[in-house]
Amino acid sequence: xxxxxxxxILLVPDPRLRxxxxxxxxxxxxxxRALAPRMLDAMYKAPGIGLAAPQVGVGLRLFVVDLxxxxxxxxxxFVNPEIVAVSEEIAVREEGCLSLxxxxxxxxxxxxxxLRYLDLMGAKREIEADGLLATCLQHEYDHLDxxxxxxxxxxxxRNMILRKLAKDLRLKAKA
Length: 175
Ligand code: ZN
Hints:
Layout: H1 29-45, E1 50-52, E2 62-65, E3 76-86, E4 90-97, E5 100-110, E6 112-118, E7 124-130, H2 131-144, H3 155-174
Antiparallel strand pairs: 1-2, 2-3, 3-6, 4-5, 6-7
């Protein structure tokens, strides 16, 4: 990947989406600083509100988020995130994923979440989130463990979505 190239987003069933990502170490700092802006480019281009490193074929614990509520970009980069607290209250929100384009399902997750992480400069940070951001952070965090939003729904619904995705992608390949 060259510096100005926008990375390709992997699609289900690529096995790299199912692997557990490794913590970012001091030796990965240069790679991560180069990768994060490229991941943001790919996310904005898609467009999406979150993208995890495994989705671009990099097995490191890193994801980017921007809910894009304002006109000006507000990118957030999360390195080695850890979920340190979740609320008992559950919220159900419709989710989609750039690795399962065009597929959506209602997913139940804790309504609020507290995350510890490092920023791109390696500084320790903490964030408490609710609403869409809480959903997004948990969705992206899952990607680092090879978990997809369809793993949170019934097997029946999951199989329907995966079949529909496979069909959509076949049609797209033919078009
Ligand atoms: Zn996703």
